[in-house]
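note to self: the first set is below, dont mix up w the second
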Amino acid sequence: MIPSDRPRADVVVVGAGIAGLTAAALLAKQGLQVELLEAHRQSGGCAGTFRRGPYVFDVGATQVAGLEEGGAGHPAGIHARLFRHLGVDPPVAVPLDPGCVVDLGDGRPPVSLWRDPARWRQERLRQFPGSGRFWALCDAVHRANWAFASQDPVLPPRSWWDLGQLLGAVGPGTLASGLLTTATVADLLRISGCAADGRLRLFLDLQLKLYSQEPADRTAALYGATVLAMVQAPLGLWHLEGSMQSLSDGLEQALAQQGGRLRLRHRVDRLEPPARTGGHWQITGRRLTARPGDSGAPEADFTLAAGEVMVTLPPQTLPALLRDALPAGYRRRLQSLHEPSGALVFYGAVERHKLPPGCPSHLQLAATDPGSLFVSVSQEGDGRAPAGRATVIASVFTPARPWFGMDEAAYQGRKRQAMAAIQAGLEPLLGVGPADWLHGELATPRGFAGWTGRPMGYVGGLGQHPSRFGPFGLASRSPLAGLWLCGDAIHPGEGTAGVSLSALMACRQLLARRGVDLRP
């Protein structure tokens, strides 16, 4: 039994990344008493930021989708919808145009992903002659996807209410695109007669890996078709002024206005279900005096009681949090999950005049050592670097597990080698030599594990393979009553827009049990 003097909440949300902040603010707006617990000293998670002297670096995410206002028959993006519903101003942002410039490393001009749809059609047909049928098929699938998603479906359904929400979102286009539920983007290439275009395939592999953690032959067609359309109006990718932290700041403001409470440096260690505690969820953990990964001793233990719990952490954390309360079948499902990737991320700063004239904000380079790079460059006056200077963030996927278990000397040596390889890859792309860096440091999966608390420092969710996407993915409604999941491992997947949609879906399910129809 929980002592009567323990703090009591309607809902405890675990993890104050974008999904947790969104869920907590939405629930608080409906009048629920909400406690949001975060182990780090700041919110944001993988979309957080840090400072090094005069420079501000985005930790992981460097661009945002879902800020379009909508109109003329086009729905608003998920962030625009939610900020409007929560009654706070969205962060100041500018659309990226081009959204990305992709250098395929073949000596030919790079591919620019223009925001204007007509200009992008011209670009892709010039770069990939004969690919029109493929892009037309992707466009048709994307339109059906977007009409479906705008109705806020619940996937995968785990109750009659869930099923009703899913069926209510289905239209004629959805039924047609549903035939591709088990297909991959590579299947779309074959259907359209473009499978032999190796240059197009390389481009698709690079772009899809960014968002789905999978190449074209392992990315669900229904997911990939929309990812490939995200740059173009009326949608778009956006560059936030100041830093990515401004997205979290707005959600924190909304949570506070609605009476919710954010508790930083509160690491959750255990969740005990109502059957074991006398009728309520019990959440226990530690208040930390230092950020996760540091050597500071815990200040004190804490215990909270709640009617329901929403977990935004990777599902791989659930066995440790629930221990023997986790149903055996669900434990086996979690143990069988695909292992996500880790990332190596270089954070650097240079004099802006060292960069190529008109350097775009986002670039991608096909490379073998250390791997294909995704590069983000700050814009002049965006608050990330002093005037005349720029921050440069370059990331590459890497298996996470090998970065653990080595001694410190070996670890530091491997870091130096990886950073040198990334800098060498940036030299031909940006024209920046080793002596030009005003600042440089590297984050590894080991560092990300300390920053985010994610197992093995995993980045992103489970990977958008057809076997893990949509109806075949993990459900937000867990097998334990009153335990909900959201975040990048839950439909529709990664990115700040994806995790916000997952938070909205889980909140709609939770509130429906209380007789509330949430329709932001």
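second set (the one i keep forgetting abt)
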Amino acid sequence: MRQPVTTFRYNAIIRNHLRTSRADQALQHYFFMRQDGLLPDNFTISSLLKLCSSLDAGMCNCKLIHAFAIRSGYQQDVFVSTGLVELYLSYGDHEAAHQLFAEIDKRDVISWTSMISGLNRNSLGLESLELFRRMVKEGVKPNQATLAGVLSACKQLMQHKLGKSIHGILIRSRLARDVVIETALVDVYAKCRNLNYAQRVFDRMSERNMVSWTIIVSAYTTEGLPQTAIQMFRQMLKEGTEALNLERLAPVLQACAEAAHLQYGREIHGRLFKIQDGEVKVKLINALIDMYVESSKLDYAFSLFRRMAVRNVVTWTTMIKGYGMHGLSEKALETFELMLESGIKPDGVTFTAVLSSCSHAGLVEEGLKQFRSMQRDYDITPNMRHFASIVDIFGRAGRLKEAYDFIRCMPIEPSEMVWTALLAACRRHKNLELGEFSAAEALRFNQHNAGIYILLSHIYADLGRWEDVSRVRLLMKKLRLKTNTACSWVEIKGKVYKFRVSDNSQPFSDELKKFLDKLLKKMEATGYMRSTSGVSHDTNEQEKMQTLCGHCEKLALAFALNFRVHEVPLRISKNLRVCEDCHEFFKFVSQTFNQEIFLKDPNRCHHFTQGSCSCGDYW
């Protein structure tokens, strides 16, 4: 027979089970406690709140515990009130959390921190920072957890200056030498595109964990520096860090793809054979398939896909995305049908890939059909990416009024992403009035998005409105907005060569420009007309032509052709969208030299053969 125990003893047992992730046993002992006729106290209620969170017990139980706390007189207990705040925020009810937080008489650093961190998790960074300012004003000293939460908000809102201020506070208070804080600082600087500071903090870290390595590698990949990302990964291996897991390898595989560094990607491929865990191996093979897709090695990707004994929704989605990127939209839709036949249920990401495939091929009605099916047949609520995809589908097809009408009828407020999709379509079809309106709507959400200003300036440039171009450029300068420098990469005989726009730093630069001049004259002799829409500066036609000659993808192609590697496909990657003139240039070269060429930009993979492109000139 069980010996009766006190509430204090039960609390200790329940807390111990929660600490060791045994929520079911914690719940069982709570029932034992009630069977023994013991009433919960403030510590029991705090444990019950953590138990609800662990078991995902639902908002109803949260409110029941809240009501019990009020009846028992424990609502003003700091542990109970903080636990209730955390639980409400975990279910996204930030209004109830705010109300409860306001009713706490004696708020300590833990209650403030719980509220700040919870708002961050609900993507309410501005409210989180405002609460932090109130906390400091009321004289409550933040701890490491508080500052980690504030740094998270800085990252979310791209608040670089505030992040540096918090960094200063951490240094002065000697709290900076903590792996969690240091990792958060690296993340803030990386997301705010200050890689110098990110690298500096990373280099000074007393201890580096999986998260910090992943952040720094991903940062260099995102910033268009994939070769540096690969170097960092190699450094990680030299330090003896175990790297065979998805979180670390995925950004490295992405870097290999973007740097056109397939040789190193294949080395990682070889490492996968050492993995025995089936679930982990599927995830990593999925990442490897994605690398081959991004590297324009669709045959390698399909070979891996075909041999997989187990495929999950990510596997299928990656192949659908790959076919769509390569202009094989019919193949993408066929793969989607095979996925459904195999019994795998699509998710929201799958439909993003399907809609993107429709957009790249001008399949407007098919895209609308899939959008309706997503909601009707699979009960998937569309997110902003889905809405933006439909706008893109209409926009690429030149149906701008329908795109605008679709936005007006959206059941939720259109986001920056949606308006930017319409702006891009306006740039493509030179619609000034709707373009200016779309830019204004997008900038309401984020006035520091350099891409919006660039798209708008291109619309002005295409229409010859150079004063407006200058006005936009001056505004960007005033806001200190940075734009990505165009870069291209090409791998030749296992070595990657990098070229920047109008790159004169290479010892062979003059030779390449002479080669391009000769080739362009040959093209013009055949009736080829240069497109200067990619030049957004008020210069004469001759200067515009010279600017086009300096486009980095042309330099990479000229360099590769000089190596006389015509027996294999050339694979060139670029960090920005390819312009119309370069697209025509690559078509001409593919026919003149009988050269197969793959050109990968952030959205599409263009496959040039015999004077034509897989995109059908629709991209």
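remember for set 2: Confidence is low (pLDDT under 50) at residues 540-544.
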